[in-house]
Structures are given as C-alpha cells and as structure tokens.
Amino acid sequence: MSITLRNIKVWNTGEIIDLKVPGLADAYFADTDTVHDGADIDATGLTVAPGFADPHVHFRDPGQTYKESMVSGCRASASGGYTNVLIMPNTLPALDGQTVTDADAQADKPGAREVRDAGFGNVIDFLQNYDAAHGVKLPVRYDLCVCASKDRAGKEASDTADWLKYVPGFDDEAKTPAMNEHPVTAISDDGAAVPEPILDEVLANAKASDLYLIEHCEHHDTGAVNEGPVSHKLGVPGIPEDTELKIVARDIEAARRTGIHVHFQHVSTAISFEAIRKAKAEGLPITCETAPHYLALSDEALLEYGTLAKMNPPLRSEADRKATIAAIADGTVDLLATDHAPHTMDEKALGFLEAPNGIIGLECAYGVCHKVLVDGGHISDERLIELMSVAPEALMGHEATDIAALVEDWAEPAPTGNDPDAVIAEETEKTTDAAAGESLEADRAGKREGVNRLLDLSRVDDAAHVDLAILNTDEEWTVDPESFHSAARNTPFGGWKVTGRPLATIIGSQFMFSRL
Ligand SMILES: [Zn+2]
C-alpha cells in the first residue's frame, strides 16, 4: 500500500507531478487522519520541497526536560517541516563528552541521574542512543554539536579525547549505527561566545577534528535588552549594539588567521552584517545565519510582548531589523535558523532582569519568515525554501534531497498523447455534464489523473535518504502556541496571522508527520 499525492508542484521547477509515498514511518504522528495506507490525496496547490534543516535548536534533554524533551523537541521539528536538526550543547550536563559518574548522580548534578539511569557514561552516548534507551521513535534526524569548553564553562577548551571518536572520519570502523546516525558535526559554546583566552585552543580542536566553529557572537556583562529608547522607557539596563560586532570582528580575524570555518549564529545588527559582507567579499571561510525574530521584530516588541521578546542577542532597533532583511535579500545571510529555546511561562514571568533569554521557533518559523520576506516582496518562495533547507543542510555537511533530479531520473513519463491541459479541459467538461450542479472544483485529482509524471519513491535508489517537506506556500493561518507539539509556549508570535504552512514531512521516503 502507499499514499499518493496528486498534482503537487516541485518547488524549484514548477512541474506538477503525482508523488507516491510508500508508507508511514514507525514514528509517524499526525494532527489529521487524511494520510493512511491507500490514501489518494488531491494536493493541487501544494508544493513538495526538500525537508527543512535547522542547525540551531535547544532540546533541554538531559537536565531540563520540564522545558522540552527530545520527544517534544523532535515532534516540534517535524510539525514545523523540519527533517534534520543540529542539537546545541547546553544540555545539563553539557554535551562535552566528559564522563558522567554515579557520584555526579548522587550529588544531584542536574541531568546526571537521567544519563546514568538510561545506562550511559556521557551525554553524547545518551543522546545518540536516546530512542533505544527510552523505547521511543524520534520523528526527525539529528546531529550533535559538542561544547567548545569543558562543562561549557568557558574556562578550559573541551578535550578532543572526550569526543573525537564521535566525529565522522575518526575511528569509523569502531562506530555503532547510532554513532553514524547522530554524529558530532560542529563545535560551539552556544549561549556564550568562546572566551578570548581559550579561542586558539578551541580553533586548534576544530582543525584537529575537521569540524567548524559555531559562534554565539555576543558578549556582554551587563544589560538585559537592547540599549536605546525602549530600554530607557522600560528602565531596564541596555546592551550596546557593538557587543555583537566585537565577537564578529574578532572571529573574522580568527578565520583569516587559521583558515577554519566560523559560522556566526543569529546575527542581528547592521554593523555586523557590514563586517560579514566585507569578509565574505574577501573569500574568508565564514557563514552566518539569522533567526525569524530578528527579521520580524525590533526592540519595540518588548513593549507589547514583555519577556516573550527577550532573547540574546537582544531584539535590536528597527534600522537593524531592516538591515537584517537587506542582508537576507543580498545573500549576506547564508541561512535561516530558529534558535528554538524552550522555557516555561513561569520562568518567562520573572521580569526583564531575571527571565531567561530565548523563544521557541520551530513550529512557526516558515510562516513568520514567509509573511515578512516573501509577502513583503524581499525574496521569492524558492529562495526562502533554499534558506531553510538546502543551505542549512550544506552547512551541516548533508545534501538536501534534490526532488527535481529524482523526477528526472525516476518518474514514469506521462501517458503518451496526453496534453495535460487538453485532458483536463475535456475531463472537466465531462465531469460537469455528468454531475450537473456539482462544483468544477470537485474531484480535481481525478481530472488530472494520468496526465502528470508519477514519481514513486519506492522505486528510487537511495529511498532511505529522501527527506521532503510538503508545503502550502499560500495558506494563511494564525499561530496558536496551544496547538504546538513543543512542550513550551514561549513565543511572541501567538495570534500572528502568517502565510505559508508546512503540512507534512517525509523522512526516508516515509511520512513522518502530517496535518494534510
Ligand atoms: Zn542558541
């Protein structure tokens, strides 16, 4: 049995095809019951694209599963159209490969008991074998990002001896399937920039492991929100705009000096984008991302949403927001990431000084970005998809599924003699005659049947690596955090009317999630 999606548009060629999906993944979950074995679905108006990838998510497992767990975080990913994510290392204990002992558990070191009870000796093993140890199936692919510093404390560089065996290309013969499935593919102290005294050693570790450095380019000792009229109005200490540029400029020089690829997270200021633009023109090995909130909101949002608009780096000025959009439009920004950062609403209620930084983003990122960037006329539908799938997959060392190439290589030709438009016109007429009074919209799938090329995923080579998102690029919908699959609700976008919605994800040629 299988599921057929009729009349679906290939995102970058515009060709209308029929897509046959062999079945449902073991971890499949759904908001609706449209998708089931044997279903024949009219997907007119929908788009098939490579699955989204996010190189910047926080799932809080182990250590803070009251905010988010691997299960809820992975479900949020699938619900947002994502098929691959990179998990940041600020778990508790931190994701640095150091041994977690029974003594740590007895001392109630956060998360240590979870790691020990699941039968593991460090957090990397815990996360790589999470599904088997917990008897669950996680509905998204994921890689791991290892700490730049031990305990993510910024004092000492993490020790490659603790994590090198988890990196592709090292001890490959000794690797378990889980180590290959969820490899360590980047280094970061995300949440803080790598401190100057250990930067050279961290870069040497990046070189020795052939990984890239993901840099949280922001360092400030005081301040809670962007310095400016809004911080003055709120009476909250401000963070100057150049706190970001200082790290960006320092690490551009580091990339120049060492040749190591540095990726800048969530860039948010005009002056940083200008520095990155110049460095890229020189051909330096740097890339950067921004996040939906920096292109959709300025610090004025603090007045409306309170701490739901508190993050690090802080939301900046309206001029910076516009510069962020310009940097996306001119290609300075390589990709969009969410910095999905779950917190409880109680924590977020602590006030501007005490509330933790960050918001969740996976389940409305596409809609918010589409609303601002595509509806706003700044970039095309295709470019947005590229920024959320092809580009982040490339950063993470993966290749996004090339659906157009699959169609060229594997699709069955449309039946000969069938000019799609003529057949549809004829069939439409017949349908109208036969079913007097019935809408022409009825049974549109039937009308097109037999005129499209059919791509049957069960027939393609390497079907196990076909990861797709099914999108409605035009759907208007209202963000409702209560319907999120994330365990968290901390987003300022609740109630926003956005356009563009992920409707399903397909991983390894199997449906993983659907709200079709
Ligand atoms: Zn982050």
UniProtKB/TrEMBL annotation:
Family that this chain belongs to? Belongs to the metallo-dependent hydrolases superfamily. DHOase family. Class I DHOase subfamily.
Q: Which InterPro entries match?
A: Amidohydro-rel (IPR006680), DHOase (IPR004722), DHOase/Allantoinase_Hydrolase (IPR050138), Dihydroorotase_CS (IPR002195), Metal-dep_hydrolase_composite (IPR011059), Metal_Hydrolase (IPR032466)
For molecular function, the Gene Ontology terms on record are:
allantoinase activity; dihydroorotase activity; metal ion binding
* Sorted UniProt keywords: Hydrolase, Metal-binding, Pyrimidine biosynthesis
SUPFAM superfamilies assigned to the protein according to its UniProt record, in alphabetical order: Composite domain of metallo-dependent hydrolases, Metallo-dependent hydrolases
Name the cofactor(s) required for activity, per the record.
Zn(2+)
The protein's job, in short, is:
Catalyzes the reversible cyclization of carbamoyl aspartate to dihydroorotate.
Name a biological process GO annotation: purine nucleobase catabolic process
Q: Which residues form the Amidohydrolase-related domain?
A: 47-397
Q: What name appears for this protein in its UniProt entry? A: Dihydroorotase
Say which species the protein is native to: Bifidobacterium cebidarum
Would you say which domain of life the source belongs to? Answer: Bacteria
| CC per GO annotation | cytoplasm
Q: Does the keyword Membrane apply?
A: no
Q: Which CDD domains match?
A: DHOase_IIa
